[in-house]
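Table S7 (text form). Paired inputs.
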Amino acid sequence: MDTISKTASYNNAPSTSAVDSAQIKICMDPSKVSAAVTLITGPSPPTYLELFNEPDFSFMGYTPLTDAVSAATALAPIFSATTTTQFLSPAVAFTNSDWLSTFAAHCNNCMDKIPIISAHVYAADPAAAINQIEMLHSRWPSKRIWVTELAPASSNDQGCNLDDQGVIGWMTTVVPRIVALGYVDRIFWNTGEHVSLSMP
């Protein structure tokens, strides 16, 4: 199996047609909106499209920050498109910040077109991880939730000192509790291990 290249690029992992067909497509940021409109209005629109990945966080400086009001404006062409694609909300890095509520207040009722809230959940304490999801559901009780990134931490500096067995224990505690909530449809593991990269 190919490995992910660790050169200074955000999206350079090798892929196959099987991997591509199984992936949830993402309109990563405002620069990709036009391509997303073409995709969802084309002859084979994806079943799902996530709208922006962590607009409130710049991954190692490679991804742009987008404030909620600007995101609402940038995504308007997608919400105006005629498509069968179902939309996932922007997946914010800070799950229970005001970003998504501000976005909703400025996107001309776009939340009516977003049946799924995308959540990134990182917390070394299992109870804190579950609490993030419960708080999100309390804000958006009519929406389904997909946990599109899940792990005890996303970097070495977040205070997580779990070894391999600790991570396994964390997952066997957290995942069944998420499933038991009844409103989370999908869970995606994100960080099996973290490698500190030295980027030029």
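Next pair, protein 2 of 2.
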Amino acid sequence: MSGTSFMPSRVSQSIFKACRQILSLCLIELISQAHAADLLNCSSQADRYINNTYGFKLASWVDRGICVRSNNNESLCYKAFDTTLKNLDSVRVGEYTGAASVLALLPTIGALLGAPTTEIWRLLTVVPFGGGLAMTLSFGGAILPVRVEDYENDLNRHKVAIKRSVASRAQQPGQLEDAQEEIYTGLEPVVEKILARMRQDESQQLAKGHLWVGLLVMILLSVGAQAAMIVVEQGGVIPWWCVSRWWMHLWYILVTENLTQSPFKDTWKLFVSDIPYDVNIRNGDSILRKLENPDASANQVLRQLGSLKAGTVELHGSKQYTRPRNAVLIMVSVTNRGQVNYRSALLRLFSKCASIATYVTGTALFASVQFLALPVAVMTLTLILAAGVFGRAITGWIVSGVSKTEPLIHVIVNTRQEAQHVIARILSLDHYGTQKPSGNEVRKVQVELGGHVFVSQRRVGSRSPWYLTILGVLAEPFDLRKVGVSETFSNMSQAGTDHSEVELGLMRE
């Protein structure tokens, strides 16, 4: 009897539990549909333009674009987009269509920036992060020359900035020996120029105030352009890419790439400065033995700088911090002329094809954007054009002020072997011009290459190569006090070594 009464009770509980679950699912579905219906209605009062009653409101305009994409679902986004588009007044539709046509002019900004010049390239070389900032303001303009002659002709306007090639540009098969002799002859003026700079009494410091003012203005221009693009992205909606929130920055990243236009296949930077301390270098391997080896390539040697046995720096006299009088950045570049570099050719071809695709896609992107208000389009176009045009003008102004202190010497060669010889001569500056100029104190020279510091051709210290890569000539020369030892300590160490050797000899006897 008890068993019979238990079965109906258990069945009824199961039925009640199933009904409760079904009811919960129905309620969840109804709530989600109601929420989706609310999301589909993203219209605002500014969508209608009746007797100029409702003017443009930036906050509500941005909120509408965010509302359309708020669920981050492609299907719901298109439903919200379609519903909002149907609620637009015909006057607003005409305004938004005209605004899209205005924004479609952006891909042609490169034509307003003019022909490629070497100013941005020189700023990119002297102060890399400043040149990188100038490149971000190009907005698709070709800013780097593609011919070696463009860099050499710059000598006519900035004689101290770029030196001509130390080797002949046209070498016949029977003129190799003459070309080699020309390398030795053409390099002498460069060596004399560097030595004169290192040993002059007058300190030629970089005009940092001039540089920072220009960079600050460029940063403000960049921030204004980026802010305008963010506003357009949040308020405007792409019909064929509804959920995208950063579509304009995708175009911006694609059009900013310009590095494949450089005509040089290899470039090395050497940071040369005088040493303001009385130092002596002991022990260590000389790098000249590897650089002067005809069987060793420059890339092979320069990739193994860290394997050289380091020398010891002995400091004599005061160890009070002292700034070097002068510093100069030397670039050694190898051209592509006369050599078939399939990798560079394919890279440039790919870059050209990518530029064409970016131009077509960008024009279609801007022409098809919806819900774009005319005031926002005009503001964005104005800020981007101002950033591009004034950014290039400010770059030229910065370079003209920086070039007065002669911060850069550019040596252009034809082959890696020639570059290897040039680097060896620069590392051997202490061996040239040994006569003491009248009234000047002859200081030793330190050379930083690939993050390694060399004095008297021996590696004595190192630091991160990114320090020089990012700051360029704004970087302070390496302070030898970090690796130097006092003369007393060095003598004690040497005496201890000699004493140990004597005891070892007595024990052997």
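The chain has a mean pLDDT of 76.
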